[in-house]
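Quick board copy: two proteins, each given as sequence then tokens.
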Amino acid sequence: MRKSPLDRGVLAFLGRHLISSLATVALALSILYWSIMASDRYVSETHAVIQRTDLAAGQTMDLGGLLAGAGAGIGGGADQLLLRDYLLSVDMLKALDARLDLRSHYSDRRRDIVSRLWYKDASIEKFHAHYKNRVSVEYDAYAGVLVIQAQAYDPKTAQAITRHLVQDGETFMNGLARQLAQEQVDFLSGQTRVIRADTLKARQALLDFQDRNNLASPQGTSENLTSIVNRLEAQLSDLKTRRAALLGYLMPSSANVIEVNLQIQATEQQITLEKARLSSPKGQALNRTLEQYQRLEMAAQFAQDVYQTALVALEKGRFEAARSVKKMSVLQAPTLPEYSMEPRRAYNALVSVLVISLAAGIAHLIAAIIRDHED
């Protein structure tokens, strides 16, 4: 059934009147809330930076190449962001609630229902979301500063929140640094024990080899045998020279020549025997014994050097762990606000007026389009 022009005019008037009425009511409620009903919230602010007190930060341990390194610290920017995440965490909220009873403070029924936590026994998820709306931790990457702000319904509570955030933040960072340093020390201690066992095994292998061969120092024995051979060869050369001189005026069958020949023969046999002790294709010659001994001695010496390096690195790691502290230096102490900075009543009221007016204008436009289609 087609509506008459009179009916359409009445409906259009009622529609415009309804939209305008709703917009007027919304504007009145918004202005009333921001000007009178909204509870004052005080903002405490502090600025802080994280500084490392360990002078050797960033240096590599001497054992780093051997033990896969124990350690570089976290960069400054990463420290700030890590702390920011902790200060906004549920764990931090629980700690603050245990000290300051934030649930009771934020859910105080004397405050307006819009800004407060609706009920005291709200779930931890809703409580945490409300906490993040009231606590702000921002990192200024250019200055390297954390700007911490906390809102509360009274100045002392706001200041107490920021003060505890600073204190707990420093404790958290120090605990994290010490935990990392202790893990590094534990790793170095374990590696040192392993290296010590390898060193003792290498030294014991060297001692067992000396016992089996009845040689305290194969190197010294080899040098002595070489000296004996050299001395015998010099003696043999002198004897041959003497025999040549005797044959110049004596017969080969003379007693003096025979005696020299016997001495030459005995010297040559002794040289052959001593050389056989030094090197021989059969049996365990001294040169092979010396080669095995040198390998065992080199392995034992290398193990000893590694063990000494491990001990130095372990002591250095313990020293660094003892002074591995990250101090949260406060550039601006938590302020005690003297007047409420939140909510920004004039600004919020103006924004509300603009938003409601824009919504009403869009509603009028939609209504006009619908009426045109009906016509």
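And the next:
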Amino acid sequence: MTERTGTRSLRLASNVFRHAGRRFHAHPDRFLERLVKTWAVADQQLFDRREVFELFLEDIRQAFANPEGAEGLAQELRLYRTYGFPLDQLPACRRVMLWHGLTDNIVPPAMAWKMVQAIPDAEAHMLPGGHFMAIDAARLIVNRLVQQLRS
């Protein structure tokens, strides 16, 4: 399922996530191992760390813990296309910081750049890494947020 299809068809995305939930419940570790292999090399290396793998495995378990999980995931996917307001209408007096991995193949960096161009007073941080680069960049992100709050 492409991002575009998933964000435009709630019913299709829900069906795909329901099917994924059944596969996950049958073999949780194998499900995540196969999913990770489709990600950027940086993310694959990150998920070689057992604590990261286990934490995400638990997140997936929670997402599929009840029958409404598939619908919730589909609705969340739709949020990435429809925010409910135009991005250029965000208050210009509020700084928005976007952090994005340069090798992210789940949400391509071009999407982050498009958002940066649309949002007034946006600050972009394009860092090495994939979709989950925030795990290793957490200290940098928090330090920047603290700096922004103090200014």
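Board note added afterward: The chain has a mean pLDDT of 91.
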